[in-house]
Amino acid sequence: MTLAALAVLALLLLSGCGSSDSEGDSGESSGESDSSAAAGTCSYPADSQSAAKDVKAPAEKPEAKGTVDATVSTSAGDLAVTLDADRTPCTVNSFLSLAKQKYFDDTECHRLTTEGIFVLQCGDPTGTGSGGPGYSFADELDGSETYPAGTLAMANSGPDTNGSQFFVVYDDSSLPPDYTVFGQLDEKSTKIVADIAAKGTDSGAGDGAPKEEVTITEVTANS
């Protein structure tokens, strides 16, 4: 696969919910975290899309600190994740808020890529790749982001357009540092996703819905 083709695949795959009404390009990274997060508060302005499910925006002041263990329960097995609330407080705050409001429950992971980059994308209750929670929030980046196997990161449709869609990296992937990395899967959980990917997409193409339907049944923070 050429570098140009890889770039196109990355842009198509990792477009997510945000202020855009449809999937689009990932844009340029801001290269730094949102200043409001550094001040201890987060901003979650309403965007142009209605929420895919009826949820409230998160509180502006994150409660979680340090690392937070959570479980993404799916039809393929439980995924154990560790969230980094110190590095990405606003992202983790949103993820935990949506989980508590059961936003992710009974939601299919709608997209899998098996060529060039290796990710499973989830978090859109509509299953279309354009659904979101009705609000957006800023990237939390420092420009050093990499995407090895086990990475948990936010999908977006350009700078500061994060919403609810996220992706799991099941094999080392080369992507620009434009996607907020907010957690990590353990080795067993990464293998579960890799086993899903080994079955390919429903069309046999390198980019599409996974052949094995994957549904998130619940996301819970472990106390």
UniProtKB/TrEMBL annotation:
Q: Does the keyword Transmembrane apply?
A: no
Q: Where is the composition biased (Low complexity)?
A: 18-40
Q: Does the keyword Isomerase apply?
A: yes
Q: Which SUPFAM superfamilies match?
A: Cyclophilin-like (SSF50891)
What GO MF terms are annotated?
A: peptidyl-prolyl cis-trans isomerase activity
A Pfam family name for this chain?
A: Pro_isomerase
Biased composition, class Basic and acidic residues, residue ranges: 53-66
Going by the UniProt record, its keywords in alphabetical order are:
Isomerase, Rotamase, Signal
Mind telling me which PROSITE patterns this protein's record contains? CSA_PPIASE_2
* InterPro entries membership: Cyclophilin-like_dom_sf (IPR029000), Cyclophilin-type_PPIase_dom (IPR002130), Cyclophilin_A-like (IPR044666)
User: Reaction(s) catalyzed by this protein?
Assistant: [protein]-peptidylproline (omega=180) = [protein]-peptidylproline (omega=0)
Region: Disordered, residue numbers: 18-70, 200-223
User: In what residue span(s) does the PPIase cyclophilin-type domain sit?
Assistant: 73-221
EC no. given is 5.2.1.8
From the UniProt annotation, give the residues forming the signal peptide: 1-20
Q: What does this protein do?
A: PPIases accelerate the folding of proteins. It catalyzes the cis-trans isomerization of proline imidic peptide bonds in oligopeptides.
What family does this chain come from, according to its entry?
A: Belongs to the cyclophilin-type PPIase family.
What's the protein called, per UniProt?
A: Peptidyl-prolyl cis-trans isomerase
